[in-house]
Amino acid sequence: MTTQWSSATLQRSLGDPTVTYPLWPPMTSGCPRTSTAEVSYPVEVDYAYDQVDPFLFATAAGRGGGLDRWAPLLPPLAAPGLGEGGTPLIEIEAGVFVKDESRNPTWSHKDRLNRCTVSAAVTTGAPGVVVASSGNHGASAAAYAARAGLRCVVVAGPELPPAVDSFLHAYGAVVLPVPWEARWPLTRKIVERTGLHPVSNLTTTHTGHAFGPEGYKTIAYEIHQDLGAPAAVFVPTAYGELLFGVWKGFTELRSLGLIDRLPRMYACQPTAAAPLAEAVRRGVPAAHVTVGHTEAYSIVSPVSGYRGVVAVEDSGGQVLELSDAQLEAAHGELARAGLWTELSSAAGLAGLRTVPDLDGPVVCISTSSGFKNRSVGSQSTKTVSPEWDDVRSRLHAAGIRD
Amino acid sequence: MTTQWSSATLQRSLGDPTVTYPLWPPMTSGCPRTSTAEVSYPVEVDYAYDQVDPFLFATAAGRGGGLDRWAPLLPPLAAPGLGEGGTPLIEIEAGVFVKDESRNPTWSHKDRLNRCTVSAAVTTGAPGVVVASSGNHGASAAAYAARAGLRCVVVAGPELPPAVDSFLHAYGAVVLPVPWEARWPLTRKIVERTGLHPVSNLTTTHTGHAFGPEGYKTIAYEIHQDLGAPAAVFVPTAYGELLFGVWKGFTELRSLGLIDRLPRMYACQPTAAAPLAEAVRRGVPAAHVTVGHTEAYSIVSPVSGYRGVVAVEDSGGQVLELSDAQLEAAHGELARAGLWTELSSAAGLAGLRTVPDLDGPVVCISTSSGFKNRSVGSQSTKTVSPEWDDVRSRLHAAGIRD
Questions:
Q1: Which residue from A179, A336, A386 is facing B146, i.e. has the nearest CB?
Q2: What was the pLDDT predicted at B163?
Q3: Please, what sign has the CA dihedral across residues A334, A335, A338, A340?
Q4: How far apart (Å, rounded) are the C-alpha atoms in residues B162 and B175?
Q5: pLDDT computed for residue B255 by the predictor
Q6: CA B262 centroid distance within chain
Q7: Is the CB of residue A260 less than 8 Å from the CB of residue A229?
Q8: Which Pfam families does this entry report, sorted A to Z (chains A, B) (predicted)?
Q9: Among A91, A281, B38, B220, which one has the highest count of C-beta atoms within 10 angstroms of its own C-beta?
Q10: d(CA B276, CA B372)
């Protein structure tokens, strides 16, 4: 396949925007010149915006084409796609829209990131990718690697949920569940020894892959096409990559003169694991916290990254901390609207419910499918009697009358 | 919400096309005038094609808008949508395209049908819907009913897979697992006694809901937009509703002068449950068979319906019978292309692999996500040692060298 034209020019440090690097190789351990022993600063991608067709947004019609239609504003998409992106925006009540990211190839938002990071692996000639993950990120990386004919190694935590295990193996990934404390050192060692391209984080505070959040920008482009600029976007947040990507997409739309104002970016974290909230409170680029219990396993992290701070502060947004009870309530609300999500994915709507008086339509990003909840499969409805009197009483209990 | 304009005019019998019925109420037990004790004939929907905007197909650009953009050629869409349809067509090898229907709101093709059937329930003022299903159909009906504010009763078989149980309960459905032989009589009784609108079959040979396959037509419209008319379409088949819907969509495109030839329609059934193959072989409208063992649970049926015969014979297609080994091989092939599907969903590609020499591009419809396989969760990779020598030997075994 021919890689479509990209206007990407170089990599730029978030720690100091005057510090730049060539576009290749992709920075997978943040910015070495500005990072310290305590804080790692991420790197982002710059583009020659003045060389991009000014009608790109006018002609990239409807939902067709996935990420490829935005190729000029993304790093080179050298890995073949799976029709990622182009997810629907569903109005669940007047002015409240849900961006349903469970409609991606591996049923989560991570596919937008992995199209970009696996493309980097292809371009650099790596034999495959390695990812530290026990969930959506690993499965998505495995799918894109399979599609590109690359190997994928997933370094997982112990007690990998069995459904995720099936998911990862389906794509032919090498799955290595190891004790928690061994995950990051082992991932680093695999990168050093084998040349596999890392598509997850390698640093003390979160930086991840320089190209990853670029894929998430397309969520902003799609929201803009369907709705214009909303007043606010509510984003389930662990490291803040998704949050930053969506924010960056809207800043580009503003620079290109397509919108007047940025939506406020609301980072939605579980109270039990809210390092970004801690960083913003303390006015530091990133923070570490002790993680408590929450069922929202996809947005649990003991450490944040500087990207999240940038997105929240620049947009006039906020970090919201949510209890599992609040997440459960929003999860139920989404299901009653016909959207069965991961518990983590309901954090956006749960966050919205805590913020009064927003000036215009709002978007809650729902990241993934209900099939990925840990509780799936624990339900077991017993066979019931088909006698009419028995059925009738069950129907009556549910408010259905004969 | 305002229902968009529909050109639907009346219902017409497949048993005798001169027999018609008004559009309302929807026929949910086939055509009473032509059906016999042995064979039930389905009913389909007619449209005033000459009143439809001739530029409908030219202006319904890209993937945007789900089913709503085709509203003029569908029964009235009175139930709110969930962004169903608009699924991507992915080229897994030169000329072989997979239509990935796992990208629908409940992650299967059934959402296209249920948008139409739940709309019928809304229009007729029913308090809710009832569906006999232990899988995708039930979950989809439950989601659309929830979205429309209607109740949903799912009459399931015994030993409902636990993941499906979670899925159905998430949307607030009343789940009634009963012994197999009680499913159809109980469904009928619930319809008679409660006025719930049936969205699955009620007759001896399969007829289902008159409006259901109309939703599947949109798959043909989308394939046409992305690719034109393929040489053939391979469809996982149980009752033949999906097969018929896709065929009907292409016949409409031909009538409207948008394509010259119909794709050959290949019905792909498990050898263990191939009633349509039996009906075509014997030259009868529908057949009953004894079902053997197959893991492809979503396309297991002991009985076929006349719709399947129409689609296969009119298009010059064929019914293909596939062993579980053939299904597994195609399932593996899809996963290696980055598409993790239900085993049943791989029947399309498995069928293609048995047919040599097709004159042009072909489409295999993949109906649903790998998360719905019965085997999901049975995998359990043990925690491994993070010592480099141990990891190294695992990587070597997978062909990854240091």
A1: A336
A2: 83
A3: positive
A4: 12
A5: 95
A6: 20
A7: yes
A8: PALP
A9: B220
A10: 24
Tell whether B221 and B293 lie within a shared domain: yes
Which residues of B, range 58-97, sit inside 8 Å of A by Cβ?
Answer: 61-66, 81-83, 86-90
The ipTM of this complex is 0.96
Q: In this complex, is the C-beta atom of B398 within 8 Å of any C-beta atom belonging to chain A?
A: yes
Mutate to test the interface with B, among A151, A174, A368 (most CBs of B within 10 A): A174
Check residue B65 and give its pLDDT.
Answer: 65
3-state SS assignment for residue B394: helix
Residue numbers of the domain that contains A232: 212-372
Name B366's bridge partners: B100
- The pLDDT of residue B58 is 83
**Is residue A237 domain-shared with residue A323, that is, in the same domain?**
yes
Q: Is A88 in Cβ contact with B166 (below 8 Å)? A: no
What pLDDT is attached to residue A199? 97
- The answer to whether residues B260 and B162 belong to one domain is no
Per the listing, tokens 């920008």 go with A217
- A 10 A CB-CB count for B136 gives 28
Q: What's the mean pLDDT in A310-323? A: 98
Lowest-pLDDT choice from A286-290, B83-87, B158-162: B158-162
Best CA proximity match to A217, nearest among A3, A6, A54, A2: A6
Q: What pLDDT digit, counting tens, does each position of A342-365 carry? A: 999 999 999 999 998 898 999 999
Report the residue of chain B nearest A336, measured CA to CA: B146
pLDDT at B64: 57
